[in-house]
Amino acid sequence: MKKSAATIIREYGPFPGAERVNGVTFDGEHVWFASGDRLNALDPASGEVVRSIEVASHAGTAFDGEFLYQIAEDVIHKIDPKTGRIVSTIPAPGNGGDSGLAWAEGSLWVGQHRGRRIHQIDPETGKILRTIESNRVVTGVTWVDGQLWHGTWEGDDSDVRRIDPETGEVLERLDMPEGTGVSGLESDGGDCFFCGGGGSGKIRAVRRPGVGPGPAKRE
Amino acid sequence: MDSLITAAARALATGDALGALKRVALRDDAPALALRGIAMAQLGDLVRAKALLKSAARAFGPREAMARARCVVAEAEIALVSRDLTWPTKALEAARKVLEAHGDRVNAAHARNVELRRLVLVGRLDEAERALETLDPTPLPPAARAAHELVVAGIAIRRLQTKAARAALDRARQAAREAGMPVLTAEVENAARVLSAPVARLISRWRESPLLLEEVEELLGSGTLVVDACRHVVRDDQLSVSLATRPVLFTLARTLAEAWPADVARGTLIARAFRGKHADESHRARLRVEIGRLRAELRALAEVSATKRGFALSPRRAGETAVLAPLVEGQHGAVLAFLADGEAWSSSALAIALGASPRTVQRALDSLAEEGKVQSFGRGRARRWMSPPLPGFPTILLLPGPLPSD
User: Fold this and answer.
1) How far is residue B383's CA from residue B92's CA, in Å, rounded to a whole number?
2) Beta carbons of B6 and A36 less than 8 Å apart
3) pLDDT at residue B333 greater than cutoff 50
4) Which InterPro entries does the record associate with it (chain A) (predicted)?
């Protein structure tokens, strides 16, 4: 397993009216983050919140290229970012113990916090297709370049780790500085992760190693 | 933190305890137990709340020291509000240190406040004052600041510093308003009432009048020779002599002071001090002995001189003499003073607060109950004592956020 200290490139927030960051996702242009009763679109270049959608948002957030997905209590809402409407709702696999959400390969991937596992579910029905066990609490999930990464946060210890999607084995680990926790995780598709900072109300851009230096390429 | 826990915590933060319970009622993991505990406490079921917080503290993992510490602080606060003074203070101190070490300043300060309130409640004012100096309330959120100022006011009131008490209560009122919590505002108003209600009686030349706290402070600073029946001391503005362990001498001093500047007949002194109906020769002899002792005790403060029909008191420095008497007379005044905070006390908690033996306290409670001055409920160890509510100690519950990972 490769182990290194996480490099924080930039910090955003805290933002007025958003006490917590419960989940983050990236639509190619904006970082969306869940702050409890709203989804907020952050422009990562300017650091400004440019838009908000009123919707319950208690944990992970994901984007499938067209729709946003948001965990609220024990369900997952599918939201049209253009209108802010909820278009459908499916049950969350952890019955409310859910804490991270990612979109990849036509499936939703849901972290189950204290259950210490990640479920792959059918985004239409919520049916569990497969479950990957981790040995730490899961606080955020993301896929990038065929790699599965998740965040953990227990007490003072928090890291971002890449795991083998078949076995759950930890392949690589980026340790967050003490007192800095990860409550949501999303890749920008390049060399950068966006990490939700829980009750700090911050979002941190963390370098993904092995991609080469320099800012992420925007298409 | 997972989804339902976040939702429940949000509900709790807005005062919706039932909404929080609804979301986590069936869950037994550590954060759910902690949230259920806090919610039950806010709903007033302190027994259930305590049990839930205890199991939450046990259920948090070894990496979650901070979450565990917050549970301990909440437990301690519940114990304080339910006047369970037997609760281990060492655990609270340890929890506070964990919170400090993890940079959770708000909850560490909250823990300190709980420690302080306990010290004030049990009358350890010097310790409370020393602890106060190590705490700067400025960066605290408004609710915690209000609770802090209530402690400052509580100490000032017990120190008879009415100006300082008034200033602290004003700051508490302001902070409670900022917090937007009606319960807290009511708590401050309740505590402030002690400044506008009589706290003692002044007896001089056989006449009596009620005194406000401020007037007590003035009286004690005025240079008057005061026979203080609340603390069983005789004092002027320079010197104080305690007669707490000499009840006969104190009764004589008080009787003489009540009559000042007139003298008191031997028969009256004998009746008050020895509870004898007729003054025979042996009583007269004993009175002479006790007056001799009193003369020696009060040497520096006053002279006790014989008159034709009895004895008279004349202060050495002071121009006036007066008696400061409690509102409620009787041997059990101290017990009543604690019960006057309107809370339900166990007899063992009262014993700790009074520094007396449980048997002594139990006897006092029994006789007060016979006179209808106190009432009890519950049985065995759960038995609690109350008196009709009077203004006193802060009773607010401002539990810390219980959750890990933020």
Assistant:
1) 25
2) yes
3) yes
4) PQQ_rpt_dom, Quino_amine_DH_bsu, WD40/YVTN_repeat-like_dom_sf
* CA–CA dist B161, B153 (Å, integer): 9
Answer yes or no: do A59 and B404 touch at CB < 8 A.
no
Could you read off the pLDDT of B60-110 as tens digits, one per residue? Answer: 988 889 999 999 999 999 998 887 877 889 999 999 999 999 888 888 988
CB contact under 8 A, A198 and B6: no
CA angle A211, A195, B56 (to 5 degrees): 135
Interface contacts A/B by beta carbons within 8 Å: 90
3-state secondary structure of B59: helix
pTM of the full predicted structure? Answer: 0.77
The nearest alpha carbon in chain B to A111 belongs to B2
Distances (CA, A) of B353 to B112, B120, B338, B389: 19, 10, 8, 18
Task: Determine the pLDDT at residue A170.
Answer: 94
pLDDT (average), residues A67-95: 96
Pairing status of strand A147-154 against strand A140-144: antiparallel
**What's the CA gap between B45 and A41, in Å, rounded?**
42
Q: Please state the ipTM of this predicted complex.
A: 0.88
Considering only alpha carbons, which residue of chain B is nearest residue A202?
Answer: B406
d(CA B393, CA B241): 29
Residues of chain B neighbouring A98 (CB-CB closer than 8 A): 2-3
B28 at A interface, C-beta within 8 A: no
Residue A102: strand pairing partners: A109
Encode pLDDT of A115-139 as tens digits.
Answer: 899 999 999 999 999 999 988 889 9
